[in-house]
Amino acid sequence: MTSKNLPKNLTEWENFLKNCIHDLKSDPVEISSLQSHTHLTESGILDSFDYLSLISQIEKKIGMDLDLSEADPMDFLTVAGLAKILMQQNSKNIHGI
Predict the structure, then answer these.
(1) Alpha carbons 46 and 35: distance in angstroms, whole number
(2) How far apart are CA 84 and CA 26, in angstroms?
(3) Which of 15, 18, 48, 86 lies in the 20 to 30 Å Cα band around 28?
(4) Three-state DSSP state, 84
(5) DSSP label at 2?
(6) What whole-number distance in Å separates Cα of residue 81 and Cα of residue 14?
(7) What is the maximum alpha-carbon separation in the chain?
(8) 87 neighbors 10 (Cβ within 8 angstroms)
């Protein structure tokens, strides 16, 4: 993905993440049933190993390393939270922050 092809807003980032989660799972999650505020671990969609695989997959797809050191750990729990992190990271990357 080039920077021109990256999602532009929160909804696009959420859809990007839903597709990444779908691609990651051997028993793919039905995208239409994956809601933005669904708790990804409590719902059983992802476990701790899946999170690591998901982050690696995202980094490969968007072509940048994610710095998650300043991210709120609660944001890792939902698609909406992860989308917020990605949008912020992309903004920092674009603006060289």
Answers:
(1) 14
(2) 26
(3) 86
(4) helix
(5) -
(6) 9
(7) 38
(8) yes
CB 45 within 8 A of CB 39: no
Q: What secondary structure, in 3-state letters, does 52-75 show?
A: HHHHHHHHHHHCCCCCCCCCCHHH
Q: Which helix (H) or strand (E) holds 49?
A: helix 48-62
Amino acid 93 reads N
What would the pLDDT profile of 10-64 be if each residue is shown by its tens digit? 999 999 999 999 998 877 777 777 899 999 999 888 998 999 999 999 999 998 8
Residue type, 7: P
Q: What are phi and psi of 80, to 5 degrees?
A: -60, -40
Handedness of CA 70, 40, 26, 49 (dihedral sign): positive
Cα–Cα nearest to 81, from 68, 65, 94, 91: 68
Residue closest to 15 by CA, chosen among 74, 78, 83, 72: 83
What mean pLDDT do residues 69-86 have?
A: 90
